[in-house]
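batch job 7 of whatever, protein = DNA sliding clamp PCNA
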Amino acid sequence: MIQAKIQEAGTLKKLLDAIKELVTDANFECNEEGIMLQAMDDSLVSLVSVNLGAPGFTHHCCDHPMLLGVNLTSLTKVLRCAKDDGICTLKAADEVDVLNLVYGAKVRFFFLLFLFLRLCGMGASRPFLIFAPFFPFPPLLSSLLLLTHLTSLPLDSDRIDEYGMKLMDIDANTLIVPETKYDARVTLPSSEFTRIVRDLSQLGESVRIEVSKQGVRFTSDGEVANGSVILQQSDWGHDDDSIPAGVGIEMNQHVSIAFSLKYLVIFFKSACFSGK
């Protein structure tokens, strides 16, 4: 069986929103390392590869590898019933063709911390005595027991939503993507690239990306207008994985390639998951 709990359902919503226009039906490969998805669009133009590692889940348990065939449009509809900041748990049992989704609200840590501190500051003769019938222990110990009990419950403990959707038998082969050495590599803030793609998509259907020693140039020619954006290499400003402050270019030779803006616009719906 598989059981995976994610802290915010909004993460799954954004993920599906980024790939549902490319892939209709796909297999989620579940194992002890996490949940993976790999599929191509109907036109065999783009490859979608998603890896949700086990450490990214609040709780992840998969006793043996499983394939979950899912219609992404249906899954998107079911996820709309969850709050963006709510907990989402995915569950599927062996030999059962149903994927269960359980939604619950998160415990507000600072509210509980405030309650804990308030309770610790109360003496035995203060209003804390109202808990005495349930926690016949010293005030501090009773506070700890009460806090432990509260953290085991969702904030809206009287509401837990559970949905089930039928799984599908999808015949799809796992694609092996070989390692490739590229002639050029450009790293820049994802927000900047998203803006460039969005702006140029208003002019034409494709964008040509040229990488040279002078920088990287994005050009789009439409029927009534054309435009270009040039980014020059600049200092990074960060040595870690945080959002970079500039543009980094690694180049072995001049590169000039055209891409469909239709697909790039879809690709960059997932830009919210990374700063660069």
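notes: The chain is about 20% helix and 30% strand.
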